[in-house]
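User: Please run a holo structure prediction.
Assistant: Happy to. Please share the sequence and the ligand.
User: Here you go; the ligand is pyridoxal-5'-phosphate.
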Amino acid sequence: MERIFNFSAGPAVLPAEVLKQARNEILNWHDSGMSIMEMSHRGREFTSVAQKTEADLRELASIPENYKVLFLSGGATSQFSMVPMNLLRKKKNADYINTGMWSKKAIKEAQRYCHVNIAASSEDSGYTYAPTQDQWTPDLNAAYVHYTPNETIGGVEFNWIPDLTYSENNIPLVADMSSNILSRPLDVTKYGLIYAGAQKNIGPAGLTIVIVREDLLGETIQNTPSVFNYKIHADNFSMYNTPPTYAIYITGLVLEWLNKKGGLEEIEKINISKAALLYDLIDTTDFYHCSVAKSDRSRMNVPFTLKNTDLDAEFLKQAQDHGLTQLRGHRAVGGMRASIYNAMPIEGVLALASFMKEFANNHA
Ligand SMILES: *Cc1c(COP(=O)(O)O)cnc(C)c1O
């Protein structure tokens, strides 16, 4: 069977080239006579894969030397706890920006460890925008500021990086980049810590990437389990316990694929055109609607509704018949959502846009 265009929010589409290479190497990786899945994580072969994956990520995202790259498991959800456990550093307050369901989950978990000051929120509007900094009420003494640069469910993306120089306390900025990491150039120096589950824009489920400035490590809250301590993972090159080896390997292949595409500047251009194809169509018909503020629309997750919601089921059915799948919106918000991560080819977006146009014409 041909591959179809998969608009899933995550786990999500991977480059076909990567999957083919993985298929070719699955029984016998580089003449080792073994699958990469069967190897010791501490052996020479796998160590070389992990090291190259880290080196490629460092190069692609220009990660400075004073940042550690950690390959963990537990998903982005584990980071909702690990961030406060490791970054509170004797403080009792942290700032959170609430722009959607993922922010909210991060907040809820952080509240187990500290007082959370919601420095800004778009919840009242139904999460349709990213509050600009003049709308923030930050705590100048917060241990850190946490935000979600791309809200995967609501489709709200920050097209700017918060500037924390309003405080002289050198507050670290923490970002949950699960759904937009590597979709555009990244200025790591603006952040204290970046984390991302791999299964949206980087690779398969199971791997969680953390990029953290070295000087923030070493002080955890009391009774922090070793496996939740960044410093222990950093000191052990992410081999304190068994890392998700196969997910790291596939991620490595995805990074090589990204490099071949020309890196983050090039992929950003493609992502801008892909998103524009859908938003332009949505805005020029009366048939579809997107409630997110134009300046804050996500390039990765395009949520939209049909003005006549009675047609939702028919839309999804016909889309499926056209080889366009996983377009149903998140169960919490309804409507449709097209996730168009790096690995979604422009052909897929063109096919979706053309189907949407046709569907609108046939049902006008
Ligand atoms: C998917 C997602 C998560 C949760 O990731 P898990 O790997 O399931 O823990 C957290 N934050 C954002 C922004 C996401 O898109």
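The radius of gyration is 21 Å.
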